[in-house]
């Protein structure tokens, strides 16, 4: 059971690193900048790709990692005490990479849709102005 948890944690962490370093994907800085926007969009209800529960779980995971209080203390169990931290770090990293990538793609889709809508509105405005009746001047 412990070995399968270790393996799963390693797979999560490797998957996160592979996804985050994929060519053409968002950079680490883009992902970090997207996190506050993602939180605001989830709280406002505009982004439904991430549930509030999952967002709270990610926040709890980060809190657990930085917290000095551990379920399994490192000082008492040495390497086994670090195992729970590694598992949580792996899950948080993999989840954060996946969720930020999906959010950034969603944001780009919304921006493209808004740009297309603005372009259509400008075209409609132009058509309204160009639909006036043209007149011809007849030479004498």
SSE layout and pairings?
Elements: H1 2-20, H2 28-44, H3 52-66, H4 74-77, H5 79-130
Helix pairs in contact: 1-5, 2-5, 3-5
> Low-confidence segments, ≥5 residues, pLDDT <50?
none
Q: What portion of the residues fall into strands of 2 or more residues?
A: under 5%
The helix content is over 70%
Mean pLDDT: 77
Q: Give the oligomer, counting copies of the same chain as homo and different chains as hetero.
A: single chain
- From N to C, what is the helix and strand string? HHHHH
Question: What structural class should be given to the helix and strand makeup?
Answer: mainly alpha
Gross geometry: elongated
Largest sheet: none
Tally of structural domains: 1
